[in-house]
Amino acid sequence: MPELSSPEDAAAINALRSAVMRLSRRIRHHRTDESLSPTEMSVLGTLFRCGPCTPSELARKEHVQPPSMTRIVAMLESKGLVRLDAHPDDRRQKVVSQTEQAQGLLEEARRRRNVFLAELAGALDEDEWAALRAAAPVLEKLAHL
Question: CA 46 to CA 39: how far, in whole Å?
Fold first, then answer.
């Protein structure tokens, strides 16, 4: 981790944390399906990005305990958003994959949230928009560390 020796670095970290949290709360208000928790939506997003996974792999990727992931997967399965299939190499395990219904739900959620962010970005000037485009890959990296 870079040394936060300067007051400017500490202020930048504080501003980043605050801005990301506020923006995240605002984005969450643009959910398409209120019956799903943010955690359930996150699991569906992980399955979209990473493909089918075992529940333990999902738990690691989502930073939750395996028993919690087992409950989340059961809820998603009961809603028809994931299916459990036999693991191809280990019959004791299951593989979780998303259904077409989940894909449609994710696409609509992304569309709505992208529209919201595009409206916000419309208030930026060209230099701010260029800085945001340059920062996007770095923020993406931070989100997945």
Answer: 10
End-to-end CA distance of the chain: 12
CA–CA gap between residue 130 and residue 124 (Å, rounded): 9
Half-sphere exposure of 112 (CA within 13 A, CB side): 13
Q: What is the pTM of this model?
A: 0.73
DSSP classification of residue 51: -
Residue 97 DSSP SS3: strand
The 3-state secondary structure of 11-28 reads HHHHHHHHHHHHHHHHHH
Average pLDDT across each block of 10 residues of the chain; the chain has 145 residues. List them in order: 75 91 86 78 92 94 94 95 91 92 90 91 94 93 85
Contact 84, 73 (CB under 8 A): yes
